[in-house]
Amino acid sequence: MRVTYNWLKDFVEIKLPARELADKLTMAGLEVVSLEEKEGDFIFEIEITSNRPDWLSVLGIAREVAAITGAKLKLGAAKEPKSLNPKTKNLGPKINIENKNDCSLYTARIIKNVKVGPSPEWMRQRLELIGCRSVNNLVDITNYVLFELGEPLHAFDLDKLDPEKIVVRRAKPGEKLATIDAQERNLASNVLVIADQHKVVALAGVMGGKETEVNEKTKNVLLEAAVFNPLIVRRSRQALALQSESSYRFERGVDLEMVRKTSARALELIKEYCGGEEVTFGLSGLTKVKEAKVALDASYVAKILGINLAPIKIKQMLTRLGFKIQLKSKSIFNVGVPSFRQDVKQQVDLIEEVARIFGYARIPVSLPSIRPDLTPEKRRGLVSEIKNMLIGLGVNEAITYSLIDRRGLNSLGFLVNAKPVEIMNPLSQEQEVLRPTLILGLARAAAFNLNQKQDYVALFEIAHLFRLEEKPAEELALAIALSGTKSFLTEQGLVRDEASLLNLKGVVETIFNRLGIIDYDFINRGASGIDVYAHNEKIGVMLGLSPQTLKELDVKNRDLFLLEVSLDKLFSFAKLNKRFIPLPKYPGILRDISFILKEELSVKDILALLKEKGQPLLRNVLVADYYKGKQIPAGYRGLTLSCLYASSERTLTEKEIQPLHDALCETLSQKFEVKIR
Amino acid sequence: MDIHAVSSQIDLDIQQVDSFEALEEFRLRYLGRKGILAELTSVIPSLSKEERAVFGQQVNALKNKLLSLVEDKQKSFSVSPEKRRRTSSDLGMPGLAQELGHLHPLTQITDEICAIFSRMGFTIVEGPEIETEYNNFTGLNIPLEHPSREAFDTFYLKEKTEGGKQKTEKLLLRSHTSPVQVRVMKKHKPPLAIVVPGRVYRPDAVDASHSFMFHQIEGFMVGKDIKFSDLKGILAMFAKAVFGEEIKMRFRPHFFPFTEPSAEVDISCIICKGQGCSVCGRKGWLEILGSGMIHPNVFKQVGIDTKQYTGFAFGMGVERIAMLKYGINDIRLFFENDLRFLRQF
Fold first, then answer.
1. The overall pTM is greater than 0.90
2. Shortest CB distance from A355 goes to which of B158, B213, B261?
3. B186 and B251: one domain?
């Protein structure tokens, strides 16, 4: 909403300079987003919140200026006009409103013998200052009054319609209208229209028809001032993709009690600047709104705002805003709400008015007492711990979109057997479903970085994923992506470590260990990747992307390893209560076993067998080293296991251990055909 | 001497070698002039011609193995450990450590803000991203016909059509974190002091300052004596904690359906300190959050007695705060996950 300093002065005396006034308005809730000096005037551009349609006029803003500066509002043009003579009331064209819910008041004023020409200079200048193009005196007057009083008006060329009867009704099937902007529009049946007995002449509250538009040749005018249902105007505006100053105001709600004053104000200006004389004035609908009463308890003002105001002060503030105050008891008011304040419905609405006029800045600062709540934030705490572990392991956190394309999901094939949740109104195909996996977004982020010439990419994301089950369900998940070669310096110089599935496994095992989860497993499902289990329940998947998928992601000459696990499931297995295990009293003995093993055999089975057969003295077995190379025959790999023997009762001797250790080596040779070296 | 026994002994011994001294000892034991290999070699002349050929080859293989083991170990201790420990090499060289990963800047800002409220006694609560129309709108006093309910302001989920079965309530992607207010207040009795971080969604076309997915932090307090002045006090502490002691704050009347009175909160521009610059649009102020006293209609929806209890609520955009704090000029950077971006935080 734009308004000028001088125009405001028509309605209120202003002593403040424009800049100071702008600040005051901003702090009263009329945010002045720009202030420009032009042609000896100042243009205020004000953002009006949707609850205050009464501020969409010079008069409305002037009323606010009066309230915050203490000046008196000069009603002037907005005064009850003399021409509101009851005798002329129903002499105009017959008005037929088909549904009073669509249109609560319609007035039509017939003015004859007007002379259309240029507008007076002052009017043209004011309109142009606020960004409204001057057309001719007649059109300019309807616009001028709209901005001044906030009520939309429309002028029809009386000779181009049949004034016998004006009908306010919904459009009929197949009806069309060429609007002022010269577009032929097909009218849907929910669009509210103005029609004469033969044809549609305007889209109610939105725009007039081309045929009945006033122009230089217009002699006689039908001036419409009305109130249309906000919702119906909004629907029409949306259906027709048309927005106008009129529809903007009707959608937010116009003041029914200003309709006749507005029409009279326009008549006054038309008489003065276009000549012409009023012939008749017709009206159908309500002329008054029942005054709403809201009780206000001054003590409640203190309870909500934290300030103690004398009831008399409260009364003054509200009176300046146009409320009618009656004292019910010492501190309880009965407040009459003016018709232009349909937003005020209950006590707190009045308290906001008091706070605004008093000034939010003057409300003191206090601190509430808070009862501490020590409920542990288990889930959030664990998420935070995992994030910190991951960054400690050199993995970077990514945040990718939850909405993705179905095509990309299809390329992941087997991973996505869950039905995705579909969006009814996606912005594009790129965002048509809620992701059932984090892997796609993370793989794309990794691919993006590889294509930015990153040698090594390690990313993770913790976010919700979504599945269509009985109803849409969401689950917290962790995904990790690794790709490329990590290079780092050591005392020996550069070490290059190519990312692999084992790196990924190591990262997630670190998390399992930290959460006290020891019962987990990785089961290779061949082409469909590796299933991750905890406590015999599948909690996720790990895989290297196929060449086909890599190609679709535009990844060249790299492998990309991905993992996704459900954190909701993982957390259900977490054992966070730690128990101390007494430190060993007696030293243990470390013995290594080096052997070569067929490639296809798994170390997992070997470790399991050793642990079983080595009881009770074999306390731990670790993979100490593994190698391939010249010394190892093809189809084999070399392994060194480190075995810790210990007893809680005594210090073991080499002699005691040797037979056990030999026996274990023997078992390995037999069961796994390993060759001990 | 059994050559196989020697070979496995070598394997055992080499693993114990953990220093230059030990390696030298190992070398002398096996390869020295009086070492085991020499001993083995000395046996050769006494063997038959056939035995000599086989044994000679085995000894030779053992020698090669020993040489390569020693060489490998030597490589692994390129600098004498003594020297390494005490005098060190060029300290102008970069230190050697594993490179850390980086938390996403939005996580860092969210954690920082949540920690501030946590220290003031607020509890952190999260909620689902798929919400009911009731929790997202009706429960928050946003009427059925409010423009924000329209499909171009909220993502709705496609409804399942199951053979003319009665439809359940419409589901949507929450357009703000406020539905968690409804969830918490329905379940828990006042007094309440809650902060809610989370992802939210609105169908905005993506550009430098808009994203269809973004993050919010919501906070609210309900009690018997919660006033607008308390809202000012809590938010003033918050702003100082995030933006520094010098920061100025102002509350402007505004409109939100779920609060009354409502206020938008500005901080003095952190770039120009209030003088007016391009970041604050020459205003000297930056809008950072919306707030107000919880609307009695919201309390009625969740069954909290408005005669006894009052409360305030506030909400802010995490991206906005991160952009201001870090000087980031394009919201899309948050979701592109360029490592060159992530590593800066």
1. no
2. B261
3. yes
